[in-house]
Amino acid sequence: MKSATWSGILAGPGRHWKAQILEGVEMRIAGRVLLGGVAAALLPLASSVSHAQSLSWFGRPAISSYGVAPLEIYSQDRDVLQLNTGVELERHSNIFALPDGVSPKSVYGKSSRADTIMRVLAGVTFDRQVSLQRFRLDASVIPVKMVEYSRFDHVGYSAGGHWDWAIGRPYFGTLGVRFTSGATPFGTYYINRENVERRTKVYGSAGIRLTPDLAAFVGADSETLDNSYSAVRAADYRFTSIETGLRFARGDASSVDLVWRHTNGDYPNRQVVDALGNLLPGAVDNEFRQDAILARLQLRPSNDSALGGHVGLTKRRFDQVSQRDFSGVTAGLNVEWRPTGLFTMRAELVRDIQSEELLTASYVDLTTLRLMPTYQLSGKIAVNAIVSASRASYEGDPGLALSSGPTRKDDINTLGIGLAYEYARNITVNLGARREQRKSNIGSVEYTDNILTANVLARF
Question: pTM surpassing 0.85?
Answer without folding.
Answer: no
